[in-house]
Amino acid sequence: MRLFNKESEKGGKGEIQAADVETNKKGGDDHDHRHASGFFPGRPGDFGEFTANLRKILQNLHECMITQKWRSEREFVLIYMGMSEQILKDLESRLQLAVEAVKKDLGTVRTGRAKPSLVEEVKVEAYGSIMEVRELASISAPDTTLIVIAPWDKSLTGAIANGVRKAELNLNPIVDGEMVKIAVPALNEERRKELVKLVGQKIESGRVMLRQIRTEIKEEIEAEEGGSGVSEDDIKWWLSEMQRLVDKYGEELTELSKDKEQELMTI
User: What is the CATH number of the domain that holds 154?
Assistant: First the structure.
């Protein structure tokens, strides 16, 4: 059986020409003549042109993936197939925001160690509006028991101290010249256990948010059923992707919980 014959030349350049595939039929002289290039679109002998075009298409797709900054072939397939990828993008965006909100909330839980994050978002009355401490001063923790706030506008030192007192953080700020100093007392065992429970409550609130988002997105996906070009398999795939993302961010909450609890219980 002979498939290709590298013999002819055209325009001074060698070409691969497809030859007839001859298959002997048992018990007779008849032959099944099929052009090898017939396995590809185009006229007989267009195999070289076909592969060149295919190469261009693949290159264009690769460039699209780079310029559009698609994170994976999975996302590219979603877009290329014209599926309702926006639903899944919205889902991931909302899940990210939910986890970030929980992470920020956990940052306010005092662990017995001085950290700038304890007071960064404390609200302060300044310049006729409400601003956060991090917008008004530099914050540092020179050691594990002390937070130092240095206002850029020294006239706001008192206002910042008052803001910390009103924030219900169980911290006692002291104005020391042009700075605000906050001693962070160590936690006793009982207080640590109380804070672990508090962390659990905040994590559970985050899981409630994830479940609510999942419910809303599930309804959006199911609403696509019966739509033009949408098959039952498409719906199943979207639901599967939805659950994968929800599980992914649920695991992130679990990790946040473990890290915070370990931080609290470490003396």
Answer: 3.30.1360.40
pTM tops 0.90, yes or no = no
Regions of the chain where pLDDT drops below 50: 1-45, 69-71, 74-83
Beta bridge partners of 221: none
* Count of structural domains, the chain: 3
Q: Are residues 97 and 145 in the same domain?
A: no
Q: What is the pLDDT of residues 234-256, one digit of tens each?
A: 888 889 999 999 999 999 999 99
Long-range contacts at 94-100 (CB < 8 A, ≥ 24 apart): 94/213, 94/217, 95/210, 95/213, 95/245, 95/246, 95/248, 95/249, 96/249, 98/206, 98/209, 98/210, 98/213, 98/249, 99/206, 99/249, 99/252, 99/253, 99/256
Domain shared by 98 and 212, yes or no: yes
Domain housing 163: 116-183
pLDDT at position 58, please?
62
